[in-house]
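Provenance

Sequences were taken from public entries as deposited. Structures were produced by running a predictor on each sequence independently, with no templates supplied. The record for S9 family peptidase from Billgrantia zhangzhouensis is shown for reference.
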Amino acid sequence: MAAPFEEHDPYLWLEEVEGERALAWVEQRNAESQARLADAPGFTVLRDDLQAILEADDRIPFVVKRGEYFYNFWQDRDHPRGLWRRTTLEEYRKARPEWEVLIDLDALNAEEGENWVWHGAHCLRPESPGAPWRHCLISLSRGGADADVTREFDLVEKRWVEPGFFRPEAKGGLGWIDRDTVYVQTDFGEGSMTRSGYPRIVKQWRRGTPMADAETVFEAEPGDMAVGAMHDSTPGFQRDFVSRARAFYDNELYLRQADGSLTRIEVPNSAHKQVHREWLLVELREPWEVAGTVHPAGALLIADFDAFMGGERELRVLFTPTERTSLSDVTWTRRHLILNVLDDVKHRLYVLTPSEGQWQPEPLAGAPTLGSVSVSAVDDEESDEVFVIVSDYLTPTTLLHGRVGEALEMLKQAPALFDAEGLEVTQHFATSRDGTPIPYFQVARRDLEPSGEHPTLLYGYGGFEVPPLPGYSPGVGRAWLSQGGVYVVANIRGGGEYGPRWHQAALRDQRHKAFEDFAAVAEDLIERGVTSARRLGIQGGSNGGLLVGNMLTRYPQLLGAVVCQVPLLDMRRYHLLLAGASWMAEYGDPESDDWEFLRDVSPYHNLEPGEQYPPMLLMTSTRDDRVHPGHARKMMARMHEQGHEALYYENVEGGHGGAADNRQRAHMQALAFTFLEQRLMKERSD
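Predicted structure for S9 family peptidase:
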């Protein structure tokens, strides 16, 4: 029988995002947190240091190539909302390049009385080789929400196109077909959005006509997750595709024919699929039997696209996972395919080149063997040039550039922004409740004594196939490591560290395994003498907020403090709030028998009066239109009602990222680290 609290939620009023009563409650909670944290000694210095780190002039300005120019979006103290700008490769090689500013977002906000946050640019490749890039679709969000507007910008005249393509504020987007035609998926009015809050109709829209008169290309079902369409402009391989996302791991891909008809690409819905030039690439999430051969989950297959669409099923295996390896990413260049493989959460890069039907892997020449490594093509239609980004917990990020098969050149290296002298990174394995080894990285002093008294911050995520990988975090370095803290990242199930099996091991009714893995890492840190329960803090956001919320209710005896950011916490109503319905493939359906296991992992429903919980800091954003701020609000209200120690801070902007600019990011980071310092460091002499 359902408990009365499940039948009647007394805090539903806090789900009214802009409700007067709810915002008054938020203002009061924010004032309490400001008094406890922002007014604490050292807070202002820490916040200013973190903002200076975020706005360092010599950090790497990462770029995207379009034609002869390299484009970058940049935020600093003088331009908090940012500049969209460009330069040449020759200029980019310099320590301080000269940039041509195209859009000054702060100036635009002042001119229009808005609070625009940059959401990106989609630019049309010219039809004639050598012609300048001109037409761009710019996405801007009010306050950082997922919903945004799209406007057209002219790169030659460096101005907004009036009248040009314009999409009003909604979740969705525009994508170029040619200079006078776009695909549009957006809110077309009543009934045009899915239950998840994303577009379910995609149309083809011609310049100079009302968007309402655009031609419908595909209409998904209301219960689907989302729909989209795209045009592949690769010379000689121009094609159009429609994607129907039935659920998070259930996606159909269609080839759109010249007459507008759609032909489904007959591969499993659960697979990642992409078409590049003459090739169809399929990465499996589940086993797939083809012509008597069963290919395992995690395998990467390739086929001739036209032959496959004609009925042939000749598939070549490019990668097969092992117990310790998985495919992290793939990158096409003009003539090569680069595989980024994780081997016990460490990166290995391989180049595959088609030759007489063979794809023999070779290590990428000059690629580093330590740290996290990501690869992107400079222009996969024209060259084999790549950018390679290298980072680890203690080494500032490095940007390499080169051509496949040749030595890589270091283009940029970020400055060291905290003192890493005497620190080291080590990898360890904890044993979860069911015997599974769980890897985790530890950043600490080399001479760390096993006293059990070291303040330790444990971070995790554990969902949606997302693996938290090593990366340089100067904020963690400045605010935590330099203060004597230990930093730990757990690679728990639910993520993608070991491919689909690692993710699927914690899906739906198995979600508890992610929490057991995280608890195993906490216990291992205590058993190894790194820390103790009163010195151990945990941090997680979004799905990671669900993780740390469950750690609070299930393993309070292991913890000294909890930082819970933009979280899911009410698993009874999550599917009714904003984009929540799109995650039912991950968590389950609360309106079915799934509630039997969902209740067990719903922190909001598992709080108990009289229980001794560690202090908690809940953080969210009013403008988060992905994970509803009501989760954090209601959790705080119930903890307050039951007399538990908790603080709450809600940023008025920022979307799911929590902040809209570096000032806000620094403020929120400083709140979190001040809270952790107060709870885990201040009492060390007790």
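The chain is about 20% helix and 35% strand.
The longest helix spans residues 20-38.
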